[in-house]
Amino acid sequence: MRRAKGQFRAVLLLSALAFTGLDQTRALAADQPVAAADLGCGVVVMGAGDLYVAGFLGPRVCPWPQGPWLLLGNVFASAGRAAIGLVVGMNQDGQVLSASGDWLQIGIDYNGCNSVSASFQGNVFEIT
Fold first, then answer.
1. What is the pTM of this model?
2. Region 1-14: what's the mean pLDDT?
3. Of 20, 98, 100, 113, which has the highest C-beta tally within 10 A?
């Protein structure tokens, strides 16, 4: 009887650790860069939808240096959508896809790279 209780507690403890580990893995994935694009500015989108932008100092050709990376906003918040899943990718046209199938289009102010917007285009699972 004591052995069965001990095994049950061990299974319960391991299950709790596994669930905690999964939550930490999701949190880490949200803080990881998912995609980058050159949309007139350097753009990086993170798993949770945060958008980092870096403009160029001087003309947009080498050897002029790139400016500092700035957090300009969140693609989900800008589009007025709740983040159901993490961002899974972005193409070179600034179209972002989330794990839930939400398709968002990023708009960047190319004059100084100081503002970003996003609009909801639809859900690819519903569209198909």
1. 0.70
2. 48
3. 98
